[in-house]
């Protein structure tokens, strides 16, 4: 008969190896390394997913920014055109009004009454000064005479302007 092989001694030896604290530490380390590998693989998948989503987001933002830029440009053009149209309309209205006033005035110069009367007084005063100078040159050319003529001319002009202003105020009161 054959002898049976007794493996109990090997088994006891294996159990003694198993219960060795160094082996327990290695087994725990292997288990933790396995967990770390699984977590690292999961983290790697998450990072890959985030990078893919980030790339998609960047592409979307670039397209969206381009769309916004085009819309903004179109709105700016429309706004500018509206402002220019309003400005052009105002200019056209002013031109039409001015043309209407010019055609109404025909060949007349429009000025206030006060200005017209003051111009007449100035013309009379200058004419009287001219006549006075001629008279002074004919009679005697002396500086005292010319001074008197200038003084009288200024007095006549001032009196004429004052008279016209007073007359216009009296007329305006009525």
Choose one word for the global shape.
Answer: rod-shaped
Please identify the structural class as seen in this structure: mainly alpha
Uncertain runs with pLDDT below 50, 5 residues or more? none
Strand runs, count: 0
N-to-C order of helices and strands: HHHH
- Estimated share of beta-strand residues: under 5%
Largest sheet: none
Roughly what is the average pLDDT, rounded to an integer? 78
- Helical coverage, percent range: over 70%
Secondary structure tally, helices: 4
Q: Give the distance, in angstroms, between the N- and C-terminal Cα atoms.
A: 162 Å
The value of Rg in angstroms is 57 Å
What this model shows, in words?
This protein has 174 residues and is mainly α. Helix content is 89%, strand content 0%. It is built from four helices and no strands. It starts with 7 loop residues before the first helix and ends with a helix.
Main traits of this protein?
mainly alpha, rod-shaped, 4 helices, 174 residues
Would you summarize the structure shown here?
This protein is mostly helical and 174 residues long.
List the helices and strands and how they pair.
Elements: H1 8-18, H2 21-105, H3 113-139, H4 143-173
